[in-house]
Specification:
The protein is an alpha/beta fold. Among the domains are: 166 residues, Alpha-Beta Complex (Isoleucyl-tRNA Synthetase, domain 2); 140 residues, Isoleucyl-tRNA Synthetase, Domain 1 (Orthogonal Bundle). Helix content is 40%, strand content 19%. It has 20 helices and 25 strands. The strands form 8 sheets. It has a 5-stranded parallel β-sheet, with helices on both faces. Helix 16 runs parallel beside helix 18, helix 16 packs antiparallel against helix 19 and helix 19 packs antiparallel against helix 20. The radius of gyration is 31 Å and the shape is elongated.
Length: 694
Amino acid sequence: MNKFKKESEIYEFWEKEKLFSADPNSNKKKYSLLIPPPNLTGELHLGHAMQHSILDAVARFRRLQGFDVLLLPGVDHAGIQFESTFDKHLAKQGLSKQKLGREKWLELAWKFKDEIYKSLSGSWRMMGLSADWSREVFTLEEKCQRAVFEEFKTYYDAGLIYKGPYIVQWCPRDRTAIEDVEVEYEERKEKLYYLKYGPLTLATVRPETKFGDTAMAVNPKDKRYKDYVGKEFEIETLNGKKKMRVVADDVVDPDFGTGVIKVTPGHDFIDYEIGKRHNLPIINVINKEGRLTDAAGKYAGMKVTEAREAMIPELKEKGILVKEEDYVHNVAVCERCKSVVEPIISEEWFVKVEEIAKEAIQLINKDAIKFLPGNYKKILIEWLKGIHDWCISRSLWWGHRIPVWYRGKEIKVSLKSPGVGWKQDEQVLDTWFSSGLWPLSTLGWLNKVESGKLKVENLLDRYFPWDFEISAPEIKFLWIARMIMISNYFTKMEPFKTMFFHGMLRDLQGRKFSKSLGNGIEPGYLIGQWGVDATRMALYTYSIPGRDGRVSKQTLDERGKNFRNFATKIRNIARFVIELRTTDNRLPTTDNRHKDDIWIQDKLERLVARVTKNLESLELHLAVEDIYNFVWHDFADKYIEKSKTSREEAQATLEYVLKQVMIILHPFMPFLTEEIYQQFDVHRKSIMLEKWPL
């Protein structure tokens, strides 16, 4: 008779018995796994489901091996994404930031955070994740605030943090700076406009930035224009005539257009660098709302695309526009809202990361971290070699507010107000600034505060460095590289020993799943159809390190159905075996064993060795394939069929093999294995307390 009737009852049993809890005082060897914190506003998607399934399999395997396991969960405040979601929520009530003010807005934001967390936290447990929920961390909680402040102050005191105007990627919709690696590129068919600039003609896709041009540039090796370099010419513009000189710079591509480019230092990263090298002035022609400034004359106030369309007739009329061509190129868009990103000059906070990156490269080259797949070692090193200063400020209200205070010309770095008359910086820190500290802040790093009120369990000495981390490749620079840099800077140690990059699940055309494409597959649908265990097993078949999988609802349904049938097969085997169960699970002595018993036990030993090896090397897809084949073909089709002629003699072997199979299958199908394990006469409180058979 089954002790449990559904998966939720089993999960409640595990939680009630505190079977997920780590024990910092244990004499056991530790094994720690850090869960990538899902976004506060993010629902569980197929990538999360696979990631959580992999994490859980590794955690359950290590527990069975006798380790004290910490699988630590957390939630990211997701600055830009949360603020956008919350502002839309407020707009439905006729409210806004402007109407509420910062203090009231934040008060309502925290209430909204609590509401959406309650509705989402259950979904993060949906895959049977055996996380230590008693130690769950939120990136804005007090211990994280203290850690982030210490990170900022340490950099500031070391002269690594500075504030100043610099060209950044700006999202006009989210109204904040974003990082280069938060930018995606979409291929678009637009027009290439050939414009007459005095005696020269040049090509551009952005005539609307013409108002911000301060030079023309050619390649110094381009013989066509050698007589023009250094000379100044009068240029016809839509705001009248203007003088502009020609500069020579190696960055100019002689094969693009006519080989001449217009230089707009305020709105193009390459042009900005050209401007610095040649001491060119900067004219801001696009503002932070994505509209043209007063520098554009009568076109001021127009959105970029509106201005471009409106300018064309006048450019033609004045003889400036010579011709147009169709042109296919990549356009930078914000990864979150898909709005076109504008490079603009903005007053922001930056971290000098060159030296920090060099030290991280040295750590990686020592092979302190095992990367799966191994080629990510080289990928991360190459990115770190070319890294530029990190823009860490965001024009938001949701996040860690920059701990800098002003009073007149005085500046102080402090977590709290230094006193009367001090005003705090308006911006908040980039979400990745706090997430990069995640391996340390989650374990109570720097947990002392002046007030003495904060009491945080210090787990750092016990569980750091983390043994296992997992991530999708798309945040390898945003998160993984930064965790390595930051952990190494503050501890001179790697943040984790094994870094597993799982592949991306894509549709059959190789596209990412998205709501706009309507190609998504909800984990809840698969679980509703086939159950958690079958869904997990289906996902493990795609868990090859670094290899993307192409899936559809049909292919996942086929695999889900196959593994549900596998679960049914195991239940049928269990009913057959346990109906004559004994109170003695010991195997018969070698002298008394039947040749079939010897054969299946040998097969089982070989299976356990392979599954152990595959779990150690994180080739979970091979482990589940081996268990599937053994259960279905060796155990069921062959041994059990033969045992029917000598059932009582085979009973001990049947029970032994079934129990061992349940133990090695438990990391992958935790609910089914617990359900069946409880039916043995001889068992522990939970299968989670069993010992791995090798």
